[in-house]
Amino acid sequence: GRSPFDAALRRYVDLLTADGALEVELDIDAHISLGPDEQIELFRIVQEGLANVRKHAEAMTAEVMIAERAGQRVVRIRDDGDGFDEASRRAGQGLKNIRARAASIDGGLTLTSWPGSGTEVEIVLRAS
């Protein structure tokens, strides 16, 4: 079951937001199927993604969505922070780690950032 995965993610978000500096909405589809390796890597991806939001984005809110969409399993981390110009900014170690973790579970990663309006990282996993 996914119950320990869901609970661990919720605990992490509770700890991360306890100081009130960032509000995080966590939405996990109750019907999504994730293997043990996927759960571990997705937990680490969310951890790294939210750490990046806190460290770099100057965001007030973030949302994490883990769901099935059009037959695909999708993980999205989005914030309302500063965003950045993707063409002029090199990927930092956090994004490199996220990319490597996504690849390790056959996930494709898309990064979209809107200067002044936030950033979105989306990972699409192979069908379960």
Could you give the topology of this structure?
Layout: H1 3-17, E1 23-28, H2 36-57, E2 61-69, E3 72-79, H3 93-104, E4 108-114, E5 118-125
Parallel strand pairs: 1-2
Antiparallel strand pairs: 2-3, 3-5, 4-5
Helix pairs in contact: 1-2, 2-3
Q: What is the CA–CA distance across the termini? A: 15 Å
SSE topology string: HEHEEHEE
State the secondary-structure class: alpha+beta
Largest sheet report: 5 strands, mixed
Spatial arrangement of strands, main beta sheet = 1-2-3-5-4
Q: In angstroms, what is the radius of gyration? A: 14 Å
Backbone shape: globular
Assembly state (oligomeric): single chain
Q: What is the overall number of helices? A: 3
Overall helicity: 25-40%
Contiguous runs where pLDDT drops below 50 for at least 5 residues? none
Mean pLDDT comes to 91
Strand content: 25-35%
Number of strands: 5
Q: Mind explaining what this structure looks like?
A:
- With 128 residues, this protein is an alpha+beta fold.
- It is built from 3 helices and 5 strands, in the order αβαββαββ.
- The protein has helices spanning 3-17, 36-57, 93-104, and strands spanning 23-28, 61-69, 72-79, 108-114, 118-125.
- It has a 5-stranded mixed beta sheet, covered by helices on one side.
- α1 (3-17) packs parallel to α2 (36-57) and α2 (36-57) packs antiparallel against α3 (93-104).
- It is globular, with a radius of gyration of 14 Å.
